[in-house]
Amino acid sequence: MSDMALSVGTAVWLGILTSISPCPLATNIAAISYLGRRVAHPRAVLFAGLLYTVGRTLAYVALAYLLVLGLLSAPYVSSFLQKYMIKVLGPLLIVTGMFLLELIHVNVGGSGMGSGLAQRAERWGLWGAAVMGLIFALAFCPVSAALFFGSLLPLALERQSGLLLPSLYGIGTALPVVVFAILVAFGANVVARAFAKITLIEKWARRLTGVVFIGIGVYFTLAYVFGVFR
After folding, report:
1. Does the pLDDT of residue 201 top 70, yes or no?
2. pLDDT (mean) for 78-99
3. What is the pLDDT of residue 152?
4. In Å, how far are 5, 87, 92, 119, 133 from 162, measured between CA atoms?
5. pLDDT of the residue at 116
6. Cα separation of 218 and 180, whole Å?
7. Are 70 and 179 in contact (CB under 8 A)?
8. How much is the pLDDT for 94?
């Protein structure tokens, strides 16, 4: 029970950390701000933010569910994962931690995609926010990809949870988005100040998580790959 509770908390934290990472955070704020400029009433801005959140959450849940279900449904793959997943998890956590500490850099383009999609969303109307959230969620940046594929997916596979943990991860990514939708409804100046504070928090939260991931990854590698503590 305690192990599952830890997995639940980890999934939510990974989602929050994904959402406040620089690339997804900037994308989220830009999308909600763009929609907010075209909506006259604060309630409609909040509604657009919730739709955007639903789109992001569904994208993460669907992707993780299909991957976990597909891997676990194949007998050979399922047997391989049950036997070797604990050994692979250590190196994966180390690599993910290195991404979070910016020890590994991967340059990924695609900044123009956001502005192009935002322009299309204007034609889609308020409901286009959900589509925008879904597409932006799948436009992985290096850090968000490391968190999703390097941490959440192995955790979901280990717990054989193709729905619960990905759903909690999606909810975690949604929490800061909802907050910024509320801030947009009250004014751009509030958003600017909040963005500066969250950027600072994200920096230290990401570094702390990276150190913890590397520490756990080293322990898992020594224990389950090299058998040091046996």
Report:
1. yes
2. 84
3. 92
4. 16, 20, 19, 34, 21
5. 56
6. 36
7. no
8. 93
CA nearest 212: which of 128, 71, 35, 94? 94
HEC readout, the chain = CHHHHHHHHHHHHHHHHHHHCHHHHHHHHHHHHHHHCCCCCHHHHHHHHHHHHHHHHHHHHHHHHHHHHHHHHCHHHHHHHHHHHHHHHHHHHHHHHHHHCCCCCCCCCCHHHHHHHHHHHHHHCCCHHHHHHHHHHHCCCHHHHHHHHHHHHHHHHHHCCCCHHHHHHHHHHHHHHHHHHHHHHHCHHHHHHHHHHHHHHHHHHHHHHHHHHHHHHHHHHHHHHCCCCC
Confidence of residue 111 (pLDDT cuts 50, 70, 90): very low
Question: Does the pLDDT value for residue 75 go beyond 90?
Answer: no
pLDDT band at 119 (very low <50, low <70, confident <90, very high): low
Which pTM was predicted? 0.80
Average pLDDT over residues 43-53: 78
Token pair listed for 65: 């569910």
**For the chain, what are the domain ranges?**
2-225
